[in-house]
Amino acid sequence: MIRYRQKKISILFGSLLIVGAWWLPVQAQQTTNSPNEQAVTTEDSTIPKAVTTADPTIPIEELELLLKPFTKDELDGEAQGWMSLLKTKVKELSDAEIAVKRKNRELQKTKEAVDALEDAKKALKEGTDTKEKIGTEPSPSGGVKAKEAAEEAQEALEKAQESVKEAVKQGEKTEQDKTSQGAIDQAVEGTQQQKDKAKTSSSEEEVAKVQEQIGTISNKVVTDEQEQKKTEQGIDKAKENIEEAVDAKAEVKKQVLLNMTRLREERTALSDRFEVVLQELELKGGDVESYKKYIDAISGIKVDVSDTEGTWITIVGWLQSKEGGLRWANNIGKCIGIVAGFSILSLIVGTILEKSLWMFPNISVMLGQFLVTLTRQGLFVVGIMLGITALEISIGPLMAMIGAAGFVVAFAFQNTLGNFANGLMILVYKPFDVGDKIEVAGVNGIVKDVNLVCTTINTLENKIVILPNNSVWGNVITNETSSPVRAMFLSIRISYRNSIPQAIQVLKDIANSHPLVLEDPGPWIDTGELAEDAVKIWFLAYTKTEDYWTAYCDISRIIKERFEQEGIVIPLPSQELYISEAMALEEGSMAKRFKDNDLPLEEVMPR
Fold it and tell me: Between vectors from CA 470 to CA 465 and to CA 474, what angle results, nearest 5°?
């Protein structure tokens, strides 16, 4: 038992020594490496400071060259620097937009105050007219009407007072807002005259005085003519002061809108340079998706169509801006020029290629036409793509969209793409050419046109037949005009009673004497078949392909005429009937009647 316990203690002690021997070096190594790892982590988390942002108006070409040697980490710093500049500019633009909206509310309240004063003046005038009418035409109810008119005038004055008060409050609210006031102060930076025009505090103070004056008058019931005149003069003065305030506010709003045009121009310039940085960063493996989304989110112009004056100033300002209308006009001009230039170039190159194809006799007409069309349309498409690039539109997403759509189109138009592939096979292997007489898919005629989708054939009946290239390439094609020499084969029947050598000699004389029959290869004429009702002589002669039908028809006519002259019979198909004696003697049988010629042949053997 004691030995067992000693052994157990020894094993436990040894295990502790092994664990200690392993743990201490590892812990020491971790302690040794810890400062280095911490330094690396600290170094990686430190983003280099942006260098290219020192001049926000740096030309884009210079910025591209300046960014070339930068590493990914350095470009991350540049991206954040340009992001900060762009964010600041967007903040200024947003503050200006807020200022315009608040100025619109000020103008609205001020114009409402002017309208209220005008209504009050009309009410006082109506009260005066009522009073004068009662004075000339007294009546028991005249005093009541005069009092009602005075009360209406007083209500109108109180309403005007309230409108003026709201206009003043709105102006004070705008002045107290640091964001809007900062945008306004930035907008009116310039000459002292412009600053004086933009100041509206003095006008608002006058409006406040008028408000107090209207409040004093409106507490009285207007019954005296002198008091009425004072009230009308006060209203006119208030209206004049408020109209001056409207003009001043409108001028400030105009200055802010013009400043917004400048800010948009600066924002666009910063966005362009920021995109150059992002493009370089993306090429070197950086993540730029969030930056691009930010640029897309802050780009563009928002127009408040309810503000007619603001909309007009915004549109005119954008049209006159270097980074707006002028830039787009220049880009559109470039686009039109590039497309027009490539259109002209495609016609010139296509014409030169078409004239040069005669140097390559192995190229078929339809392949030549295909190459010319492909060249012209290809150059035109290249021109369109370059024109789109001139509009500063990235063709990368466009190509990706075309690629994605191509899969769907390929699936939907499988047969059409099959025609396209077969059209290429026809163009490459040249089984026929334009102008050849062919027979394919049961159609016989002359090829008029071949493209990548279909083949057009003009039949002998002058019918136009359009065959899909699938049907053309998938069937047996017989080309009757591919060779310059064509064999003319005739199977001529003569009677067994005629001499075969005589008939062959006559046919040889016809072939040798005919001007369209070629001597090399020469004609071949011999006995072909001993048929049931005639001897068939095979006539084979060669002629030029273009003379085939002329020679065929002419020789057929000459053979008929010469055979008649030589007494050679061209037999018709016939059949001999043998009637037995028993059938001929049977009373009433058809055979007896036929033998006795009692029944015409047509009735005995109806057709």
Answer: 105
State the Cα–Cα distance between residues 25 and 39, nearest whole angstrom.
22
Q: Match 């039949």 to its residue by tokens.
A: 459
Residue 70 has phi, psi (to 5 degrees) of -70, 145
> End-to-end distance of the chain based on CA atoms, in angstroms?
132
Residue 392 sits at the vertex; the CA angle it makes with 386 and 395, to the nearest 5 degrees, is 55
Give the pLDDT confidence score for residue 538 in this predicted structure: 94
Among 303, 307, 318, which Cα is nearest to 264's? 318
d(C-alpha 141, C-alpha 131), whole Å = 12
Q: Helices 548-566 and 500-513: crossing angle, nearest 10°?
A: 140
In this prediction, residues 525-549 reach a mean pLDDT of 91
Each as own residue / partner, the long-range contacts of residues 397-404 (CB below 8 Å, 24 or more positions apart, any chain) are none
Pick 135 or 365 by higher pLDDT: 365
For 29, 268, 274, 280, the CA distances from 66, given in Å and listed in that order, are 43, 20, 13, 11
Residues 6+ away with beta carbon under 8 Å from 84: 53
> Within 10 A of 249 (CB to CB), how many other CB atoms are there?
25
The whole-number pLDDT of residue 127 equals: 66
Give just the sign of the alpha carbon dihedral 591, 594, 599, 604: positive
Backbone angles phi, psi at 58, to 5 degrees: -60, 135
CA distance 365 to 13: 98
| Sheet strand arrangement including 443-450 | 464-468, 454-459, 443-450, 437-440, 477-479
Q: With contact defined as beta carbons under 8 Å apart, do 232 and 124 qualify?
A: yes
Query: Taking the mean position of all CA atoms in its chain, how far away is CA 299?
Result: 21
Amino acid residing at 375: T
What is the chain's alpha carbon radius of gyration, rounded to the nearest angstrom?
Answer: 53
pTM above 0.85? Answer: no
SS3 track for 10-30: HHHHHHHHHHHHHHHHHHHHH
